[in-house]
Each structure stands twice: as C-alpha cells, then as structure tokens.
Amino acid sequence: MKLEPLVKEHTYHIYNRGINGETIFKTEENKQYFLRLIDKYLSDKATFYAYCLMDNHFHFLLVVNSDGDIVTQALSNLFNAYAKAFNKATGRTGSLFEKHFKRIRIDDEIYLRQLIVYIHLNPKHHFDMDFTSFKYSSYNTVLSDKETKLNRDEVLELFGDRENFKFVHQQKNDLLEEKFMLE
Question: Which residue from 44, 61, 66, 46 is spatially nearest to 104, judged by alpha carbons?
Fold first, then answer.
C-alpha cells in the first residue's frame, strides 16, 4: 500500500490505533507522556488545530510546517519512542500501533471545521462521555486563555468566535445524543 506523502503547508488528519484495537493509553500518565512527546518531536515541525487521545486510538489535525519527509520521520520517532516506553512500563513486546499511521489531506474548509468537531466529540461517540470535560482533547484548550502551541486563533476564526465554536460542538453533540436514544 502506497501512502500519500506529507506535503509542507498542507493540513492533515493523522490517526492510528493500537494493533488489533488494543489499548495504547492505559493511564493518564501515558497520555501526558504522549503529549510531551508530541511537543518534543513536532512542536517546530507542525501546527496543531485539534487532537484527541482515546484509550485505543488518537487523532491529530495539523499543518505540516517542514519538509514532509522530516515530519513523517518525526511522527515515526514519536510513535517509536512512545511504544518503547509503553512496552517497557507494561511488560509487553512487539508493535503497539497498526503498521502505518493514517493520513488524510484536508483541502476543504467546511470539512476542516467538521473534522475539528468530530475529533473533539470522539469521547462522546466512543464512550458516551462528556466531551466538554474530557482532559485529552484540544476542545478546552481552544476555549482557554492559557498559553498553548495549538493554533487557537485560527481554529476560532474558522468558527467565527468562541461562542459559535461551542454552539457548533453542542449542536453536533445533541445530534449524537439523539442517535444514542434511538438505538
């Protein structure tokens, strides 16, 4: 399978899951460590719009700021560093992630907005959790005034302002709740 190369100045949805759907984040410390590795390996190579770390998978929405091969290698280094630490801590061996991380190039602003909401609503969609209090997504980072490397201003600009950002997320959340009630 030929994977699409990452291209500088383009936006991508990057995601992967544990091999065979296995858990890749067993503890909060695992997720915190993964976020530190993101900062270590990608902070100068990519700009993040959104992220979400679930127990068995993750999503990133980012803009590639460096040569695509450099960012691909940085992502590989991130995943390898995390897998080695996770395996050592849990006494497991072998691959942690599915073979290659998936990537979808985003060229449409409407889809970009929908994807941000989709990523933030992952806790609701997968575990019927309150996405507004989920600690390992960028939803609250976007709404916060705290310093961040996330491109908060551009994300909010995509939605018009903070209030519309919250409104769109809540509207999609309400649709999900309605779907769960019907099932």
Answer: 61
Q: What tokens appear for 5 in the block? A: 């190369």
Residue 46: both structure tokens together: 């990519």
Q: What is the pLDDT of residues 69-99, one digit of tens each?
A: 999 999 999 999 999 999 999 999 999 999 8
Q: Distance between CA 82 and CA 140 in Å, rounded?
A: 24
Domains of the chain (ranges; CATH) run 11-182 (3.30.70.1290)
Helix 152-159 vs helix 109-120: crossing angle, to nearest 10? 110
Segment holding 3, helix H or strand E: none
Between CA 97 and CA 74 the distance in angstroms is 16
Enter the pTM of the model. 0.91
